[in-house]
Amino acid sequence: MGTGCSYCAFENGIKVLEWKGKLENFHRVFQAELMGPKEAIIRASQGNEITQIWTDSLSSVMAVLDPHTPHQLVRDIQSLLTQNRNILFRFIKVHVGYRGNDKADTLAKKVITEGVVMK
C-alpha cells in the first residue's frame, strides 16, 4: 500500500502544525523514517528558535550520527543540521504515550490510504 511519513509540531503542549507525505511503493520504511524529520528540519530552519525534533526511529538517529554514511538522504539531514545548530534531532521511545509521537504515527498511517504521492 505504500509508505507514509509525517511530523507534527507542538508549542506549549498545543499542536500548531502537521505535515504528512506519501512515498512511492518502492520506498522502504527507513526512507520514510528519515523523510518526516527532514521535512521538519527544513520547516524549523525557517526560524531562529531552538527546536527539538523527536523520532522513534533509533536507526535514523544512529545513521545521522554516522559521519561516513553512504545514504544521500542521511547526508542531506546532516547538512541541514550542520547549517542550523539550533535544531536538535533526538530519539524518543515508541508506544509509551507521547502525544506528539502517537499523532505523527497516526498521520503517517492515514496518508498511506488517503494521500497523494510526494514528488
Molecular structure report:
With about 120 residues, this protein is an alpha+beta fold. It has one domain: Nucleotidyltransferase, domain 5 (2-Layer Sandwich), CATH 3.30.420.10. Helices cover about 45% and strands about 25% of the residues. It has a two-stranded antiparallel sheet. It has a two-stranded parallel sheet with strand order 3-4. Strand 1 (about 5-10) and strand 2 form a beta hairpin. The two termini are about 15 Å apart. Pfam families: RNase_H (PF00075). InterPro entries: RNaseH-like_sf, RNaseH_domain, RNaseH_sf.
Instruction: Report the helical percentage.
Output: 40-55%
Overall body shape: globular
Structural class: alpha+beta
- Strand residue percentage: 15-25%
What oligomeric state best describes the polypeptide chains here? Answer: single chain
Strand count, sense and barrel status of the largest sheet are: 2 strands, antiparallel
Mean pLDDT: 85
| Parts with pLDDT < 50 across at least 5 consecutive residues | none
Distance between the termini: 17 Å
- CATH-defined topology: Nucleotidyltransferase, domain 5
Radius of gyration: 14 Å
Write the CATH architecture name: 2-Layer Sandwich
Can you tell me the number of structural domains?
Answer: 1
Jot down its keywords:
two-stranded parallel sheet; Nucleotidyltransferase, domain 5; alpha+beta; single chain
Furnish the topology, listing elements before pairings.
Layout: E1 3-11, E2 14-23, H1 29-44, E3 51-55, H2 58-65, H3 72-83, E4 87-91, H4 99-114
Parallel strand pairs: 3-4
Antiparallel strand pairs: 1-2
Helix pairs in contact: 1-3, 2-3
